[in-house]
């Protein structure tokens, strides 16, 4: 489960980075190199679409981070000794028997 969430985390990280870099800023950023996007995203341009995509991806990123932390914590709370099967290590282990008590000397 944690492996799947970790892969999703990497994909979300890359997508959030791309969406943030595509937005216009005071220094234009990478949005200057994307060409004319107004027709693709609607008449208002990519601003509303990219803002909604950023909020959505950011929310998914935070929720995935919380889930990943929860499941990772559940896996690490188990001890390695809990997973050991004693019968597989020593197949013919002698059974414990009650030995007679040693005589008491006066």
What's the gist of this structure?
This protein is an all-alpha fold. It contains four helices and no strands. It has one domain (2-78).
Keywords summarizing the entry:
106 residues, mainly alpha, 4 helices, 57% helix
Average per-residue pLDDT, rounded, comes to 76
Order of helices and strands: HHHH
The 3D shape can be described as: rod-shaped
Main pleated-sheet profile: none
Low-confidence segments, ≥5 residues, pLDDT <50?
none
Tally of discrete structural domains? 1
The number of helical runs is: 4
| Helix percentage | 55-70%
Rg to the nearest angstrom?
30 Å
Q: Strand content of the residues, in percent?
A: under 5%
Coarse structural class: mainly alpha
First and last CA, distance: 66 Å
- The count of DSSP E runs of length 2 or more, i.e. the number of strands, is 0
Description of the structure:
The chain has 106 residues and is mainly α. The protein has one domain (2-78). The chain has 4 helices and no strands. Helix 1 (2-22) packs antiparallel against helix 3. The chain is rod-shaped and about 95 Å long. The N and C termini lie far apart (66 Å).
Task: Summarize the topology.
Elements: H1 2-22, H2 38-41, H3 46-76, H4 86-89
Helix pairs in contact: 1-3
């Amino acid at each position: 489960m944690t492996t799947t969430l970790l892969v999703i985390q990497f994909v979300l990280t890359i997508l959030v980075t791309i969406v943030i870099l595509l937005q216009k800023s005071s220094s234009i950023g990478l949005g200057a190199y994307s060409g004319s996007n107004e027709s693709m995203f609607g008449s208002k341009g990519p601003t509303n679409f990219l803002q909604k995509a950023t909020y959505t991806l950011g929310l998914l990123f935070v929720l995935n981070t919380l889930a990943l932390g929860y499941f990772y914590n559940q896996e690490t709370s188990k001890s390695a000794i809990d997973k050991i099967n004693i019968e597989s290590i020593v197949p013919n282990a002698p059974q414990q028997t009650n030995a007679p008590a040693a005589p008491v000397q006066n």
